[in-house]
Amino acid sequence: MKKKTTAFFCQECGYESAKWVGQCPACKAWNSMVEEPVKITPAGTGLASAAYSGGFSGAGAGRGRTLQPVPLSAVEDVREKRIPTGFAELDRVLGGGIVAGSMILVGGDPGIGKSTLLLQTARNLSGAGHSLLYVSGEESLHQIKLRAQRIGTISDNLKFLCETDLDAIAETLLSVRPEMVIIDSIQTMYNSTVQAAPGSVSQVRETTGVLMRLAKETGITFFIIGHVTKEGTVAGPRVLEHMVDTVLYFEGDRYASYRILRGVKNRFGSTNEIGIFEMRQEGLAEVPNPSEYMLAGRPIGASGSVVTCSMEGTRPVLTEVQALVTKTAFGFAKRQAIGTDYNRVSLLMAVLEKRLGMPLSEYDAYVNLAGGIRQTEPALDLGIALAILSSYRNRAIDDTILAFGEIGLSGEIRAVSMAEQRVQEAAKMGFKTCILPKSCLKNVKNAGGIRLIGVAGMKEVLEVLE
Q1: Any residues with CB less than 8 A from the CB of 297 and at least 6 apart, and which?
Q2: pLDDT at position 378, please?
Q3: CA of 57: how far to CAs of 53, 433, 444, in Å?
């Protein structure tokens, strides 16, 4: 009996099934299963197929001989050399710079600025003397030049290639030998050894595997641009994120001026850091002080507005929390949260109603983190609760007060990490008073001249505000 050489893959998450199903069992997407080949044909004759037969420089040397495993103590301790990108914000997210031979996947919504960011990064690196190759499968050379003219002069160290055939790209890489390569985008690349359309699950997976093999064999650093699904994840199988060394997501409203670069995977650094950029006519510009940027235009003397502080990795970011509490007109209170966790807002309102006797079940509540940033750290709890309380009472909280802390179900204010860094950031931005968990007071050695008020519960917070 002939063996079946096709399978059904989910176009959203890459789930594989032997038969077609209407709804993907993994991501629950409807009508996303497509039939694709699962066996790689031996007809490929280019360098892409050489990845499977040991065609790259020494790649097949391990065939026919016994490999000797070594203990960890015998491995030489080599510190990775970092290459600065010219963007301090990008270097922060990468962990200090680019590591040679690594593969970096950049995902984001269409039009968010992925290509612009990498083109500007390539301009910075080429200006510093590094050789780069920009491979575009979506734009012509003329289109790239029109876009490049807006961001400034580009050195001749940066060369461009419009191609989608992986065999031709691999030959060019091995002949030119650039230090870094940008692939825009991985969904447009075509591997002749895979009998599937470009952008399909099989093509994306196998093409990325070939490029990863090239990166490790030659030491070339790869930047790969990936499209995202409607859920906001990189299109293609989840194994794609496991194959690369670093996964970065470019977030933000395409109609707003700010952009947030967030690392979700990094084999060479932390995944808690973010980089903030502003989209301008000449391209992306760094935002070195995000707190000042997020607080720009904050209303003075308005009820329902409180400034709080969250940590993004090692960086404190001040954010304005806005709340609007109004009497419900339908007997069923409505809750809405923008920029933070909806369930967390509902929990905090239940705590306020139970512990402080506020009849919030009769009121609609809308909570928004101004500036469009999304944060879910528990340290935002006290700021959200104070904004709801201020709007409910229709009494403004002093504009020089900042508050942070986690709220428990019994109304207690629990400790949060890096309290001193938060306080110092508040002092730097001109705040005079900081309300924080009482258990965090001992961790703040240098308050920067700001007045500290430690609270252990929500009843103490009310006493402070009276």
Answers
A1: none
A2: 94
A3: 11, 63, 56
- Report the alpha-carbon distance of residue 436 to residue 415 in Å, rounded: 8
73 lies in some domain: no
Kindly report, residue by residue over 176-199, the tens digit of the pLDDT.
999 999 999 898 998 888 877 787
pLDDT at 322: 96
Q: Torsions phi, psi of 157, nearest 5?
A: -70, -20
Total of domains in the chain: 3
Residues 179 and 304 in one domain: no
- How far apart, in whole angstroms, are the C-alpha atoms of residue 245 and residue 267? 6
* pLDDT value at residue 395: 95
- What would you report as the CA-atom Rg of the chain, rounded to the nearest whole angstrom? 26
Q: At what angle do helices 458-465 and 381-393 cross, to 10 degrees?
A: 50
pLDDT at 266 exceeding the cut of 60? yes
Q: Which helix (H) or strand (E) holds 209?
A: helix 201-218
Q: What are the tens digits of pLDDT across the range 42-92?
A: 444 455 555 444 445 444 444 556 788 999 888 887 777 899 999 999 999
Cα–Cα dist 41/193, whole Å: 6
Question: Residues 247, 299: one domain?
Answer: no
Mean of all residue pLDDT scores within the chain: 87
The angle formed by the CA atoms of residues 112, 296 and 283, to the nearest 5 degrees, is 30
Q: What is the CATH number of the domain that holds 106?
A: 3.40.50.300
User: 């070594």: which residue's tokens?
Assistant: 70
Can you give the three-state secondary structure of 305-370, one letter per residue? Answer: EEEEEEEECCEEEEEEEEEEEEECCCCCCCEEEECCCHHHHHHHHHHHHHHHCCCHHHEEEEEEEC
Residues 261 and 330 grouped into a single domain? no
